[in-house]
Amino acid sequence: MFLIKCPFVDLRIRLWRVLGNIVGEDVHVNYNITLMMSDKLKHNLIIGDRVAFGPHSTLITSSSPNDSKLATNINTEKYCKIAPIKIGDDTWIGANCVIHPGVTIGKNCIIGAMSNVTKDVPDNSMGWGNPFQIVKRLHLE
């Protein structure tokens, strides 16, 4: 088996860091990841070591209707959220996942493909779905 390190992965990680994000060591940032970031946050993403992202995932740290009146309407402003995303060491994010503002995903987690993660995920959890649901606790040694 041959392992070829794609230089574009390194470039994506460098870009994430230049944008002010904290990215750990040996992180794999696959292609076509969308970052919906806020300039109001010091760090939009805080990512641990050895985290792997599948392709086509979306990380949202700022959800708002931009300059629409919905952003300041008393009935809708509570749905507008700006908060960083945190992902612990040794976590695998499957393809086509969406992670919402303020979500913390713990260490040693597996987030199945096409999951919509709207709430925190504790360490050593595996799950999937829309909305994301934990289906198994991982017992790692």
CATH superfamily label: Hexapeptide repeat proteins
Work out the helix count: 1
Helix/strand structural class: mainly beta
Overall average residue pLDDT: 90
Q: Shape from CA axes?
A: globular
Strand content: 25-35%
Explain how this protein is built.
The structure is a single chain. The chain has 141 residues and is mainly β. It has a single domain, classed as Hexapeptide repeat proteins (UDP N-Acetylglucosamine Acyltransferase, domain 1). 9% of the residues lie in helices and 29% in strands. The chain contains 1 helix and 16 strands. The strands form 4 sheets. It has a 6-stranded mixed β-sheet with strand order 2-5-10-13-15-16. The two termini are 27 Å apart. The model has no long low-confidence stretch (mean pLDDT 90).
List keywords for this structure.
1 helix; 9% helix; single chain; six-stranded mixed sheet; globular; mainly beta; four-stranded parallel sheet; 141 residues; UDP N-Acetylglucosamine Acyltransferase, domain 1
